[in-house]
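OP here, attaching both records as promised.
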Amino acid sequence: FHLILHLLARPGRNRNNAKRSISINGFNVDLVGLLGQNGEIPPAWYGIYTYRALVKAAALFGDGQKEDGYAALELAVSHCEKSAAFKVGDLLDTGNVELFGGVKLIWGKELIQLQDGSKEPISYGWEVEYGASSAYYAMTTPRGWEWFNSVREEPRFKEYIERVHKIMNKG
């Protein structure tokens, strides 16, 4: 679990190189897809999946690949919506039992629960639990996420912002 998390959490934004950011974040999005079974993203990875898909979307927009950007944005927002249902302390499936041995993520605690019931801290908690407020910030801030500038005024993009805003206001 820790090794996969370390790989997924490595910096991948590459603000000055959209193509490289697309490749790195696309790899991470694909990798998370391999952690589950039958193409399902395991719930423990929704947050990091949201983050990586969002960064990939921004980079795709920055590279002029608008439709692919919206497809990645849909992945990000839909998994952000799914993770909004989690409560602090929920035990979340990490995926393929052969890979992770039944380890569970304890949502909101930056801990995992091992098979014997013991708990262990994790690194990169902010990425694992990346949620609506962070996504909203990324989609609306004028600085640091400039790759979104090419679509910020589009009604379609504003609909995604509204979806994330609704998630934020539920809590």
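Record two, same layout:
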Amino acid sequence: MRWALGLAAAAAAFAVILILFGSLFRPTIATEPAPRDPAAIAEVEALRDVSFDPANPIVIWRDVDYAEGPDAAWYPKHESPLLAERVAQGLLPPVQERVGSEPMVVEGVEGVGRYGGTWFRVAPNLRDISIINNRLAGAGLVRWSPYGEPIVPAVAKRWEHNADMTEWTFHLRRGMRWSDGHPFTAHDYVYFFEDEVLALNIGLRTYMEVQGELGTMTAEDDHTLRLSFPHPNPLLLSKLAGPAPYVAPRHYLEPLHPIKGDRDKIRASMQARGLPTPRANYQAVREASTNPERPSIAPWIRRTASDIPPVTFVRNPYYWAVDPEGRQLPYI
């Protein structure tokens, strides 16, 4: 018992010595923080400010006059050095031919950027990879601005509607191409709606529904798309600005369509992919986020077919947007 009490007393004495020893070498802590430069404080506070003027929201889309043609500052004339090398090697046409004469012109909130860099992102599952083609890099007829409104042009350079909003007409950009270089037309929208949504029940149809009834879609010509509805559809632009894609590369998918496709090509594709049915095969080939052969109009396209990480996407060489100085996007 005495032995145990002796150890406790020794331990207590040792603890007191440590406290006293530590107090001798403890740094002196000022009671007041060091003075800060008022200008530096103001700069930090400005960076923290997330307020905005609802009457003047940020808009990165730029309205330009396409009649200016090649003399305009925005006209496609620059590209990523990686793509410029492929042009020099004869593997790609010049940037003007790839982008087209009526590109979407956008300027980032920090101004004009420069080429280079890599965007790294963690995807917890294979399905999460697909959002690169919608939420993270959509390519719809129209698009949201950074704070939502206003809705601005994207694939459609302009649009109009009748008085009761039962008929909408979208005018597409001339010169747009799919990532494989094939011309992009209004017929690609009709194919998605009629041959995928209606014929195969693939893809969302809500953008074409009003009061539970479906509208109709017509390609007046290669660059004019008309949507007609049985009731007024004032929310159409908000639906179209969302993340879901509403278009498909008809030239690539139609030969593999399970109903109207080429039987020999379907069988060959099924055998190559090890899939049991024409519909299963079609579901696989139409998915841009997993099939690198499927053409896209998104800013990035998948590079390899393997799902073993890392999954890599590269610039779409035919992306149809530029900055105000004529640099083809994307920068990264």
